[in-house]
Design a protein that fits this description.
The complex is a heterohexamer, with two copies of chain A, two copies of chain B and two copies of chain C. Chain A is about 30% helix and about 25% strand. Chain A starts with 14 loop residues before the first helix and ends in a 13-residue tail after the last strand. The radius of gyration of chain A is 21 Å and the shape is globular. The model of chain A has no long low-confidence stretch (mean pLDDT about 95). The longest helix of chain A is centred in the middle third of the chain and has 18 residues. Helices cover about 35% and strands about 15% of the residues of chain C. Chain C starts with 9 loop residues before the first helix and ends in an 8-residue tail after the last helix. Chains in contact: A-B, A-C, A-D, A-E, B-C, C-D, C-E, D-E, D-F, E-F. Bound molecules: iron/sulfur cluster (2 copies) and magnesium ion (10 copies).
């Protein structure tokens, strides 16, 4: 294409749009037909008792590119992970782009390339998509919405409802890297660090864990951080969760960002982290299986499930105190007092 | 109130405007060092608040505080051992 | 993290807790007849709950959460004025994140932002200055909020703006000072306090002597303390020691940061930029003489009150607080948060009625967030 | 909820977000679980030879509410239609919302209600979703992205590749109502009309047509209008399409808007219109089937397929001239000359 | 649509086509030796292609597409100036949609908008006026583009702005006039034209007499025509009749709209607001004396050239057009669009090189859009 | 150039500023009628261009044009019939 930046013409439904889609997206995603719907078959889906898993997320992030990833990587990983944590094997993704007028086409190309690469390494195909262009000041560079389809094999049934008192609570690595990276990358707080986003696809990790030993539930810790994921799960399962401050894996730089801004790392976003609940007896095998993969290298037990009070998450502090770990209220704001 | 955090002043950013780079656990940010510029702050630890180095940290004093706490720890351990012994004695028939 | 982690050592904390328990027992303190210790500073309140000290410490020690959270003591009328300034066309209103969610009568700054006002969170007044440099056609207003710890940074920023001749930067000055409200509390005949934990970062600026009157005139011990858990425990131990010894003195636990006479550069900047207001209104405490700062006439060009014809001096008729809000009583220790009829009902962090539920330093938010909520349910 | 407008807190991943999602979305869509993935089974999908159809679209429209619909109705109809025109029976939708800070919550409720009602009448379920909040000036009220899953029954195979010379070209009703309605509703051109968007779900219509007689292909005419859909299909099928100006169904008001602004109704967007290709012999039965449903009442033949030149669409004008109907180039701009 | 549909009646058109064919045969016109008729106006070009008249009409009639598309004849330098104004902070640049995609040297207005300039399409200068009223802190500039048809609307808007005392409204005036370039074409010794279809809507404003010189001085028939297909066909027939009869006169086919002497209100507004420029540059035609209008000094406050120190008067050094672009030759009928080496290669509607490919009235776009493209492939 | 379209002026919007409502095929927009306000334009047809009523449409003249075209149509038909007859004659053996 001769154009270097997106104009409203690229959203008009005509030739300019077609050219943009072909040059930037379909040339990279290589869908099988030009029909505006993918037509798919998978043997796994037709097995008796197999269930289809379906999920969606919109991705909005500033900046669009950051250390460790870009919005495209987030969009693939996030939806793959939402499928994976339910026990589904991710198969197919859709990708819809809302592009702000003026967006650099080279940036879109980089994002599409990241998505294609991440999809390939996660073993999923981007099979259908859409682009829209909005006027300048009515978007933010680009928003990406992915939806995902996976298959839950017969017999696999995990979820919050299965969590039991006594379950071990496991995370797959250091917490808050993504959130801290974005805060720093945004630039307005003038912080600089060497941290990278933890953004990663966790499909293989979940399959490894499922294969290793019985497990009850898993959830990716994204917006709202570990604390919000634990609160959701504790509420849905009607149990209490107690984690141990001393066991929480945290990078010093993430602690640094939190100390400077008065934030709590438990609430920082992650994009390649999950929390997993399994019977205590499963924990060693699951940990071992997780640690055999790069995205599970840092897997550790961080706490356990208690019978009640239902929905309560608490943390044993380093010197034996306990504090409530409530759900994040609104958004975490940097504070000075 | 008044979140403050220890950071090391690692280099000048702009000496004229008294801006220097501070580092907290590997995180860097330019801060104003006007309040601690009486002596050369580079290499020193300071208490950072809202982008300003508000005070240099007195390392000796910090060590003394910790020392006192450790002494207390030992003393308290002794006290508790004595108390445990007392209790054991009392519990003895 | 150097100068922090060491002071979070569980072993040291255990020793301190044990020593405190011994002292408290010796003093006959019990849950029924506790010793009342006020941590003046919201930062201390935050640390107490964050580390669970309230549950670890001997049950004969009861913390009274003092008025040292600048967000909590900010009257609603000030928030309304912030919103009014922020909503003016052309204004970029900058504030620390803390103030974003404090309810005003009409709306909070966060709601004003959602309504289209250009409200931006900054980490430092220096960031507000930089915004002013980069947006010469806009008026950048910085919301000056905080006690003596924060006042120098605003003052130095105003001086810098003056040096640069910035014409589009101003401060909406609502800075306040610590000693005056303490005096007001001590003058309250209902108040029974056995000692104070003094705000370490305030003393980093003003030194320890401004608290002399507490020991000298009111016979109460005060220990200026750091913010790590062992700092707090050590300070409690020092207070109990004074009580046990029948002494009342100003002591400095936080010597690594607090110089006896404070920081001369900061003090000079404060003196140069601000003057005392005759009096200032505190949420829950009412008007307190000489407890607020305003920008001196020589820096009038940087004073948002002057620029916008708004602010404390112009709206002395106190604006009523929300009915049913007991923040005032909680703030002076007369009610526990859980005793407020609104706690957890009309008032919760997602929909705060009072400021004490907004700031993570507010006693109500701390009770809610860190686990004393159940008491109310 | 006490809040009347969305603030950044509603996107933070914490309690405010949960409250918004529950009050506005899940209370209306009523997903089966609180897991962030729907788990689905459908007998039709497990039939041997059945294929899964998968599609996605983002919806961006100003104003968000307009005569005849709102963005929520568009989002349901658009994705249902993209499934339907491929011969799929639509089953499930996902719905992801990107909400601009300051958006009125009552508006979101109205949009969600429309979506639920339209989904019900279209026979699909909204089974999973997502919400994000972006800062004011980085969005436009709300963007909705829907993805859809449908099942193509064994033996059903339609698409551009099947189009043959001699095929009849059918549309299901008057053209351009949606585009003209939006142009007028936007207000900046100060036009007022009584037209309504044609926005409608076409699942039942497609099923009726498929049941009536053999058909080769269908496509919904959305952005870029009939002209762009015909050009796409002609190119994909390697045929020429000739339509007849005298046969085009157009409302006088739509012609009026076009005359005033110098636009061509062939390029105006539709949201409830499809173009269908079938053997000439099928046309009467298909027209009859279509006309039996309200969304096909206006069904008419507008032209036919010619062997070539491949990809060319032309129109016989009212007095026997012929003109090329090219693909829209950029976007249609109002013109004065 | 009344006064439109009747004139699109296929039966009437058939009769006209047949009568034209008879006349053309009688005149011995053939594809090899055609009669050359110039439709001056781009609106006529558009109608010819939209209704396929070029293919329906007798093959001995060849249309030469004249310079009457204001977008097509706009030199690139004017577009550059539009972009320059639009990119100034605080400016809302308003334009008819037609001008959005015209390439400048750096960018088109559409690209400037994508780059952050506040460019808005309007349907009427009245809409630009309304934007100025609603955005008093912004400078609203209206791009005044067009021939005599459009000049009165801009003039009336300037008068209205003056009456209201609007201080933030100005017009970037690039209005031009029809008779002068026609004279320039007729003076070209290479030009062989047998008659003109005159722009009906221009005559609606200025009447028919400004074309008298065409018949009187150059001996060419001219018929002022409406824009519906039968209007055009009737006009062709009227021209052929003049040719057949050896006459050359100014005739009015479009009597339902065109008064012999034009519209007095419009003429008065034009005279009040504009004065002639000594000369003005046309794309493809070069400088033509007295062919452009500028705003009179009495309305200087509404003249964007004055406000921004920009515009034709200030940049007389002609800025070179894009190399390889043959728009100039096409516009004067010396080349058919398909004979331009760029047609369909370097130049297509999605990436136009020349203005004739941008405007839907441009001959190249019409050839492309309405099907004569194949000829080039 | 100069897209113009016939519309009916249906009512005054603001007589002082010479704004009236025009209707084109059921689509309404306020237009400036300064150029046609010499006689009361309400109810009349006008040629609308960029938001201005630029000229009133002369209905009689329009009818005359159409009449002329219809006459031409008849005449042309006659000519063609004659021509067809001629051809038939010529073709006759
Ligand atoms: S619960 Fe709410 S209203 Fe009551 S004192 Fe606390 S903050 Fe104030
Ligand atoms: S094809 Fe392009 S460059 Fe050539 S004359 Fe036409 S517009 Fe100009
Ligand atoms: Mg999801
Ligand atoms: Mg997710
Ligand atoms: Mg998830
Ligand atoms: Mg699409
Ligand atoms: Mg933006
Ligand atoms: Mg789609
Ligand atoms: Mg679609
Ligand atoms: Mg479609
Ligand atoms: Mg989600
Ligand atoms: Mg907006």
């Amino acid at each position: 294409m001769r154009d270097t930046h997106v104009t409203m013409a690229h959203g008009g439904g005509g030739r300019a749009m077609k050219e943009l889609i072909e040059a930037v997206f379909t040339s990279v995603f290589q869908p099988e037909s030009s029909e505006d719907q993918a037509r798919l078959m998978a043997a796994a889906l037709q097995e008796p008792g197999a269930r289809l898993a379906f999920t969606t997320d919109s991705f909005v992030v500033t900046p669009l590119e950051f250390p460790g990833g870009d919005i495209g990587k987030l969009a693939v990983c996030g939806t793959v992970n939402d499928l994976a944590v339910g026990g589904a094997r991710p198969l197919w993704l859709s990708a819809a782009f809302i592009i702000e007028e003026g967006c650099e086409i080279a940036l879109l190309r980089r994002i599409a390339a990241t998505m294609a690469a991440e999809a390939q390494s996660a073993g999923v195909r981007i099979v259908t998509g859409d682009t829209k262009v909005v006027e300048r000041g009515k978007g933010d560079g680009v928003f990406v919405t992915t939806s995902g389809i996976g298959v839950i094999p017969p017999g696999c049934d995990i979820g919050a409802a299965h969590i039991q008192p006594g379950d071990a609570v496991i995370v797959n690595g250091v917490l808050g890297d993504h959130g801290a990276t974005i805060l720093a990358a945004r630039g307005d707080l003038a912080l600089s660090t060497d941290i990278q986003s933890d953004c990663a696809s966790l499909g293989a990790l979940m399959q490894a864990a499922l294969a290793a030993a019985p497990l009850h539930a898993a959830r990716d810790c994204t917006r709202g951080g570990l604390a919000s994921a634990l609160n959701e799960l504790a509420t849905e399962a009607g149990v209490a969760v107690e984690i141990d401050e001393a066991l929480l894996p945290l990078r010093p730089e993430v602690v640094g960002v939190c100390e400077i801004l008065g934030l709590d790392p438990l609430y920082l976003a992650n994009e390649g982290r999950l929390v997993l609940f399994c019977p205590g007896a499963s924990a060693p095998a699951i940990l071992e299986a997780m640690r055999s993969l790069p995205e599970g290298e840092g897997a550790v037990v961080i706490g356990q499930v208690k019978p009640g009070p239902a929905g309560q998450v608490s943390m044993r502090t380093r010197f034996g105190g306990a504090r409530r770990v409530d759900m994040l209220v609104g958004e975490q704001l940097p504070r000075i007092c | 109130m008044c979140l403050g955090i220890p950071g090391r002043i690692i280099a000048w950013v702009d000496k004229a405007s008294l801006m220097a780079m501070a580092e907290v656990s590997g995180v860097r940010r330019a801060v104003n060092v006007a309040c601690v510029a009486g002596e050369d702050p580079i290499g020193k630890w300071a208490l950072i608040h809202v982008g300003f180095a508000m005070a240099l940290i007195d390392e000796d004093e910090a060590a003394r505080t910790l020392e006192a706490l450790r002494d207390l720890g030992e003393a308290q351990e002794a006290v508790e051992q004595m108390r445990a012994a007392d209790l054991a004695l009392e519990a003895a028939p | 993290m150097k100068f922090a982690s060491e002071f979070r050592d569980p072993a040291l904390a255990r020793a301190l807790l044990s020593a405190i328990a011994d002292k408290a027992d010796a003093l006959g303190a019990s849950r029924a007849k506790p010793l009342h210790i006020m941590e003046i500073c919201g930062g201390h309140t935050h640390s107490i709950f964050r580390y669970g000290l309230d549950k670890l410490v001997h049950e004969g020690i009861e913390f009274i959460h003092g008025p040292g959270c600048p967000v909590c003591v900010l009257p609603m009328a000030r928030v309304d004025e912030c919103v009014e300034i922020a909503e003016r066309p052309g204004v970029i209103f900058t504030t620390f994140g803390d103030a974003m969610r404090v309810p005003g009568h009409r709306k909070s700054l966060m709601q004003a932002k959602a309504g289209g006002a250009d409200v931006r969170m900054v980490y430092s007044p220096l960031d507000a200055l930089e915004l002013a440099r980069r947006n010469p056609e806009r008026e950048v207003v910085f919301f000056g909020l905080g006690f003596e710890t924060t006042t120098p940074s605003t003052a130095l920023s105003v001086q810098q703006a003056a040096r640069e001749g910035l014409r589009n930067f101003s401060v909406f000055c609502n800075h306040i000072t610590v000693p005056e409200p303490i005096k007001a509390l001590l003058d309250d005949p209902d108040m029974v306090l056995d000692g104070f934990i003094g705000p370490g970062h305030v003393s980093m600026v003003i030194g320890v002597h401004p608290y002399d009157f507490i020991a000298r005139d009111y016979g109460k011990p005060i220990v200026v303390a750091g913010f790590e858990p062992t700092d707090l425990l050590q300070s409690i131990l020092m207070i109990l020691t004074q009580v046990a010894e029948g002494r009342a003195a100003v002591e400095n636990q936080y010597g690594r940061v607090v110089p006896e006479h404070g920081n001369p550069v900061s003090l000079a900047a404060i003196d140069d930029v601000y003057e005392k207001r005759p009096s200032f209104e505190w949420r829950g405490l009412g008007e307190i003489d000489a407890s607020g700062l305003r920008i001196r006439p020589k820096y009038r060009a940087f004073d948002a009150e002057e620029k916008f014809g708004i602010g404390y001096a112009r709206t002395r008729a106190p604006v009523p607080e929300i009915a049913g809000c007991e923040c005032g009583k909680v703030m002076v220790g007369k009610l526990k948060p859980t005793q407020c009829p609104q706690f957890g009902k009309g008032c919760s962090p997602e929909m705060p009625l009072g400021a004490l539920m907004v700031s993570s330093e507010g006693a109500c938010a701390a009770y809610w967030q860190y686990g004393s909520r159940v008491a109310a349910e």
